Amino acid sequence: MKTLFVAAECAPFFKTGGLGDVAGALPKALKEKGTDVKVVLPYFTKMSDRYKEQLEDLFSYDVYVGWRKQYCGVKHLKMNGIDYYFLDNLYYFNRPELYGYYDDGERFAFYQQAVIELMEKIDFIPDVMHLNDYHTSFIPFLLKEKYHWIQKFNQIRTVLTIHNIEFQGQYDREILYDLFGVGCERYDDGTIRFNDCVNFMKAGILYADRVTTVSPSYAEEIKTAEFGTGLDGILRMESGKLRGILNGIDYDTFDPAKDPAIFSNYDEKHLDKKTENKVQLQKHLDLPVRPDIPVIGIVSRLTYQKGFHLLLEEMEHLMQFDVQLVLIGTGDPTFENQFHYFGEKYPQKASIHIAFDVTLAQKVYAGADMFLMPSAFEPCGLSQMISMRYGTLPIVHEIGGLKDTVQPYNPITNEGTGFGFDIFESFYLMNALKQAIELYHDHQDIWRKIVLEAMSRDFSWNESSQQYLELYKQM
Prior knowledge:
By secondary structure, the chain is an alpha/beta fold. Helices cover 38% and strands 19% of the residues. The chain folds into two domains: 2-248 and 461-474, Rossmann fold; 272-456, Rossmann fold, CATH 3.40.50.2000. The chain has 19 helices and 18 strands. A nine-stranded mixed beta sheet has the order 3-4-5-2-1-6-7-11-12, sandwiched between helices. Strands 15-14-13-16-17-18 form a six-stranded parallel beta sheet, with helices on both faces. The longest helix is centred in the first third of the chain and has 18 residues, at 104-121. The protein is globular and about 70 Å long.
């Protein structure tokens, strides 16, 4: 089985979120199952020097972006037995951020055509192209409408994974001939048109052989008007080829027994070392050293989508409890300022860090007792799986992947792997927080039991990669 995995970001080279983690871990898991997998990425020059120094320049070729003849250099790196190809064009990819520019449509028009034209040049015509999000979702359309005359390409099957349907790639009709050099027939007949724009995501959903998303619940949610961001009708129409496959986490990277970033390594049999991580975290952040009180951890973007307006509504209330809160994140300036205010008002209870700090994040996963994710929607979410792996119980809004991965504590049976609330209001968030705080203070025996249950859950890529492999074989 030959698979070409195509994405716009990939850990450890460069990432902004869950897509980068998936692109880093899933190909590795597929390789372990015997798949011949290669990965193609843009060459974003913000890649760390550690990896730049290992790159080998292979060759270059011209890519026509409409009337523009653009240079495309090919750099190569072999890591963990996987060939990574980076497509180099300084005009498009030598920028401080990965996305968010006025010409993103042109940048990813170049990238998608460059990927297709790369395959023959590296003598790798895959059985399956696995595409991810709107940056690559126009490739199935291009294979069928522009490059169909290349016979080798006609047998390629395509899978499009939707990591977040909010980002769809919507551009003016003129891009079809201006950037892709194709006619407007499929726009004019409505096939790839949405809201009077060319819609990359809609094209991908219609033209790909299979469509997946990153959790079973999210696959159902995006077929509704509430979560489908306009494409719910198309997804209902194509529901026969839509499937939710839960993301995993990289167990080599996220392992409390081996993690070099935490204060003290531990496993299920040595939970006293987890308490040591809490004590060291409190010292590190200048909080009162009190191993007897619960520490609530947050590592997140601070946005409405992540639900932090609910927490801010209850912060004054929460600070009256015998708890400590540690927050790491950046986002909405209003949220940042409000959390700063509470950090200054309650310095003995709240440690607020408006920053992106991967090393400190690992210390929070290991040192906190609870991990808060009150997201309005969450296609999959990885942080709740990481926190459970580290014995830190998640408190989540029961939506999307959070619903699929966290078993809310049941006070009747004393079973669960975390805490949940199903109505997206601050009152219900606070109820879940109070339930967790009270259980921690009053029933340490039960708390320890559900910590062990959370740590025993398997969120590795083993099962999920097997489901993808079966999907490839079905095609």
